[in-house]
Write a structure and sequence with these properties.
The chain is of the alpha/beta class. It has one domain: 3-Layer(aba) Sandwich (Rossmann fold). 33% of the residues lie in helices and 18% in strands. It has ten helices and 15 strands. The longest helix is centred in the middle third of the chain and has 20 residues. It is globular, with a radius of gyration of 19 Å.
C-alpha cells in the first residue's frame, strides 16, 4: 500500500479522510502533539514535525508516495519559506513522491475587474499573502519538473460549510458594499473541496492548475444576504466604498479590493461532480444538517 503524507491537518484535510482510508497508509504531519490522538483514532499515523523547524523535517525524506499539502504560508514576507524547507527535506531523500497536490488560493489572480478568470490568466497578486502563494506555486512547479513529480495545484476561493459561515459578522452588523460598488466572489463548499483534492490526487495532470470553485456567480454582498436569509439573521447594511474604508478592517478591505469570477470548467478533467454546485445548495443542506451516511467514492473508480 502506498504512503500518503498530509501536511496541514486542518478542516479540509480531515474531510478528505473518508476518501483515502483503505487506499493509502496515511501519515499526518502535526506540529501540535495534542492532535495526535485524533488522527491516530481515525487510522492515520501521526508524525510530529514543524515546517518552521528544518531539523524536524528530516524524517519526511523518501517517506511518501503522495503528498496532500494544505498548510498555509508564513504570516509575513514575500516568500513561502515553509514550502522551501519542505521541498529541501524531500530533495534529500532518494525516493521523491510521485504525486503532490497543493491547495492554494485564488487570490493569486489579484483584481480582475469582475471578469471570468481561467487558469491560463497570468497571476497578479496584490497582497503579500497572495505573493507568498505565488511563490509556493513556483517552487512546486520547479520541484515537479526536476523530480518528475506530478504536481497539481488547486486554487480555492471562499470556502464555506455549516461551520464556516460569516455568522458573527452578520450578528455584528458589519456592512457590505452597495450593489454598484460590490465585487464578484467565488465559493466552494468544504466537502466539495475535499473531493476535488482527492480527484486531483487520482487524475490531476502534471504541473496543472485547477480553479476549485463551484458554479455560483455572486457578489459579496449577495452572498452575505443569502447566508443571513438562510440562518434567520438580519441582512448586513449596504454602504459605499468610501464609507466601508472608514469602518472595515484592513483584512476585510483587502477582500473588497478584488473582483473576479472563477471559471471552473477545467475541474471536469478530474471526473469530479460537485455535491453543492451553487452556494444556495450548500446552505440548504446545512439548514437540515445533512450528513451522508457513507462517503461515496466517485474518484477512484477505474
Amino acid at each position: 500500500m502506498q504512503t500518503l503524507l498530509i501536511i496541514g491537518c486542518g478542516d479540509i484535510a480531515r474531510r478528505t479522510l473518508p476518501y483515502l482510508l483503505g487506499r493509502y497508509r496515511i501519515v499526518a504531519l502535526l506540529r501540535d502533539i495534542r492532535q495526535a490522538a485524533f488522527w491516530r483514532a481515525r487510522g492515520a499515523l501521526p508524525l510530529i514535525a514543524d515546517l518552521d523547524r528544518p531539523a524536524s523535517l528530516r524524517r519526511v525524506a523518501g517517506m511518501a508516495d503522495a503528498i496532500l499539502h494544505f498548510a498555509p504560508p508564513p504570516e509575513s514576507g514575500m516568500r513561502d519559506t515553509r514550502m522551501r524547507r519542505l521541498l529541501a527535506a524531500l530533495n534529500r531523500g532518494g525516493h521523491p513522491p510521485r504525486r503532490f497536490v497543493y491547495l492554494g488560493a485564488s487570490g493569486v489572480y489579484g483584481d480582475c475587474g469582475g471578469a471570468r478568470v481561467a487558469e491560463t490568466r497570468l497571476v497578479c497578486p496584490l497582497t503579500e499573502r497572495a505573493r507568498r502563494r505565488v511563490d509556493a506555486e513556483r517552487q512546486l512547479r520547479r520541484f515537479g519538473r526536476a523530480g518528475n513529480v506530478r504536481v497539481s495545484i488547486l486554487r480555492a476561493p471562499g470556502i464555506y460549510a455549516a461551520d464556516r459561515l460569516p455568522l458573527e459578522r452578520l450578528r455584528r452588523g458589519t456592512p457590505a458594499l452597495r450593489e454598484r460598488d460590490d465585487v464578484f466572489t467565488s465559493h466552494i463548499h468544504a466537502d466539495d473541496l475535499a473531493r476535488l483534492v482527492c480527484a486531483a490526487l487520482r487524475r490531476g495532470r502534471p504541473n496543472r492548475v485547477y480553479n476549485a470553485a463551484d458554479d455560483s456567480c455572486l457578489k459579496m454582498g449577495d452572498y452575505f444576504d443569502l447566508v443571513a436569509d438562510r440562518c434567520g439573521l438580519p441582512r448586513p447594511p449596504r454602504v459605499s466604498r468610501q464609507e466601508a474604508e472608514k469602518t472595515l478592517s484592513p483584512a476585510q478591505l483587502s477582500f473588497i479590493g478584488e473582483s473576479r469570477r472563477l471559471d471552473n470548467a477545467r475541474i471536469r478533467e478530474l471526473g469530479a461532480r460537485l455535491r453543492y454546485p451553487r452556494v444556495v445548495d450548500g446552505l440548504d443542506a446545512a439548514r437540515i444538517d445533512v450528513i451522508p451516511a457513507q462517503a461515496e467514492i466517485l474518484f477512484f473508480k477505474p
